[in-house]
Design goal:
The protein is an all-alpha fold. The chain has helices at residues 3-11, 14-37, 46-65, 85-107, 111-143, 151-171, 175-199, 201-204. It has one domain (3-204). The longest helix has 33 residues, at 111-143. It is globular and about 50 Å long.
Length: 207
């Protein structure tokens, strides 16, 4: 099933919907921790701190949305409370590995320069995805008259993408070429993730 086909199935089932929100929260939290991990202790900027803080808040906000479905449905990020748990954990980590490999090979970067460049490209690719994913999810929520909403995340993710583009322009005159490479890598991983979601036994049992 496509992402658009999966969403109504997920939203229509409280257990699935809670696990979906928990999975998104996990992924936002993973992104926030990766941003923090790439921070230089002396030269970290306002934008990086702001971005890490907002990604952490998104993870928390998505967790809070679960309360609109039922209390204590997904208390932790344990596999039984996620959808496509292995793929969901692997997704962002693999993108980071792929981008780092590209930057080492194409630009010869290493150390803190590699970490910062990887932060820029990985985050850009994820923000491009978020700008597509969350509006589609919100539309599905509206159609289902769900109490859950992600409108505040949509607004902030739009701002994040603009901030990433500004940082990338300062990083390299060829930023678009490198950014497009990262987006291509992410697209492949996203397709694999959606396939794994469709094959999750919990979803297959109700679809």
């Amino acid at each position: 099933m496509s992402f658009e086909q999966l969403l109504p199935v997920i939203i229509d089932n409280n257990q699935l919907h809670a696990r979906w929100l928990n999975t998104l929260s996990l992924m936002e939290n993973t992104g926030a921790r990766k941003i923090s991990a790439c921070e230089d202790p002396e030269t970290v900027t306002y934008i990086i701190l702001k971005h890490a803080a907002e990604e952490h808040r998104h993870a928390f906000y998505l967790k809070k949305q679960i309360e609109k479905i039922g209390s204590a449905i997904c208390p932790t990020y344990s596999p039984e409370y996620l959808l496509a748990a292995a793929s969901s954990r692997h997704y962002l980590n693999q993108l980071d590995v792929d981008v780092c490999r590209y930057l080492k090979t194409e630009l010869g970067l290493k150390g803190k320069d590699l970490r910062f460049a990887a932060y820029l490209l990985v985050t850009y690719a994820i923000e491009v995805r978020a700008d597509e994913l969350y509006p589609v999810y919100q539309e599905a929520l509206d159609k289902a008259s769900s109490k859950v909403n992600v409108k505040s995340i949509i607004l902030e993710e739009e701002g994040h993408l603009e901030e990433m583009i500004n940082q990338l322009k300062n990083f390299s005159p060829d930023w678009q070429l490198h950014a497009d490479k990262a987006v291509t890598m992410e697209s492949g991983l996203f397709g694999e993730w959606i396939a794994q979601l469709g094959n999750d036994p919990a979803i297959r049992s109700v679809s």
